[in-house]
Design a protein that fits this description.
Blueprint lengths: L1 E7 L3 H10 L7 E7 L18 E8 L10 H18 L4 E3 L3 E4 L2 E13 L2 E12 L16 H4 L7 H22 L6 H6 L7 E5 L4 E9 L5 E4 L5 E4 L3 E4 L2
The structure holds biotin.
The site of biotin has 18 residues, from helix 1, strand 3, strand 6 and strand 7.
């Protein structure tokens, strides 16, 4: 089931959730050329107001897994986007844990995974992906943080349909490996090979305090392993990790 909107005034994630409530099958996909009410992580907005510029896509999964594992879907999605960008543009990107796809230290893609529950079971996992494809510039407050495939390739134009199809193809490939064990053990090495700051210093901005350590990559559960000064390893599963240098 695929639904394509020229313009969605709310969010493609929200639309997939609606379809999920109505019994839509796994794999249901919603794409929008223009998305006016897009949602980012931490309650932020994610705008895609110019036709032909962004990819806004969301798809539905109904995995029979423990709800605590749903966040692993986000890491898989980041790997799929990275592989799709490499296929279509030839460009090498990095992943900033857990799920930002980065070129030149700037973000080219954001991912928002949302889960709905039915009693203690997962009813749906909605994976929402936004990719900046043809943006020529960004508003002042985003200039340092955001980029697009066009900017990074020096003016390249790409088929958004092709990128979208590649994201889905790679997601399926990685998702099957995830489902085989119910964790990321088969994907961990590849994920870590494209992780920013691996082996380098990271600052962990936790609600109580900020601390620093050395990033040792993810484990099979998708947690970021950070080595403290005393050599002990802390598993980071939430909180914002900012990368120094
Ligand atoms: C982030 O904050 O980095 C996540 C941004 C996620 C944006 C995408 S665009 C398609 C989908 N629909 C939404 O409303 N959000 C996600």
């Amino acid at each position: 089931q695929v639904e394509a909107h020229e313009k969605i005034t709310y969010s493609t994630n929200q639309r997939v959730k609606q379809l999920a409530d109505q019994g839509a099958p796994e794999g249901t996909l919603v794409v929008a050329d223009v998305q006016e009410g897009g949602k980012g992580r931490r309650g932020r907005a994610w705008v895609a107001p110019v036709p032909g510029t962004n990819i806004a896509m969301s798809f539905l999964l109904r995995p029979e897994i423990d709800p605590s594992r749903a966040s692993m879907m986000t890491l898989i999605a980041a790997m799929a986007v990275r592989a799709a960008i490499a296929d279509v543009t030839g460009m090498d990107t990095k992943i900033k844990w857990p799920n930002d796809v980065i070129v030149n230290k700037k973000k080219v893609c954001g991912i928002l995974t949302e889960m709905t529950m039915e009693e203690e079971y997962i009813q749906s996992v909605v994976v929402g992906i936004g990719i900046n494809v043809h943006n020529e510039s960004f508003p002042e407050e985003l200039k340092e943080k955001a980029t697009s495939l066009l900017i990074e390739t020096g003016g390249g134009h790409f088929s958004r349909a092709e990128i979208t199809a590649k994201v889905l193809e790679h997601f399926e490939e990685y998702y099957e490996k995830f489902i085989a064990d119910g964790d990321l053990r088969r994907l961990q090495e590849e994920y870590n090979s494209c992780l920013t700051a691996i082996g380098g210093k990271v600052s962990i901005l936790a609600p109580e305090k900020t601390w620093e350590g050395i990033s040792r990559g993810i484990n099979e559960e998708g947690a970021l392993l950070v080595e403290k000064e005393d050599g002990s390893i802390e598993k980071i599963t939430s909180g914002e990790v900012s990368v120094r240098g």
